[in-house]
Automatic annotation (TrEMBL):
Domain named F-box protein AT5G49610-like beta-propeller: residues: 6-74
Protein name: F-box protein AT5G49610-like beta-propeller domain-containing protein
Pfam families, alphabetized: Beta-prop_AT5G49610-like (PF23635)
Lineage: Eukaryota, Viridiplantae, Streptophyta, Embryophyta, Tracheophyta
Domain of life: Eukaryota
Amino acid sequence: MPQDGDFLGVASVGDNAEFVFLDYVRYGVVLCVHLRSRVVEKVYEQAPYHHGFFRMGLSHIHVSPFMMIWPPVFPALKRDTIKSNDPAVL
C-alpha cells in the first residue's frame, strides 16, 4: 500500500507527454500513466529476491518507449522469391 514519502522516479516520458513511466522503487514495479485518461497500469514487476524483499539497488531499469501502428501490417510474400517446389509453402 502506498505511503506518504514513497519515492516514484520518472523512468521515461512518451512522445508529446501523452504517457509517463514511473519507477516505484519500494515495490519494484514500473507504472504507465496515461495522462489524458488518467489511467494507471502496472507494466513491469520485479521478481522478489529473498523472502519477498526486492533488491533496492537493482530496481532501476531502462525504459525505451516507442510508438507503432496497431495492428501491425506485414508486407505480402512474393511467390517467385521462394525456392521451394512444395505447394504447401507460400
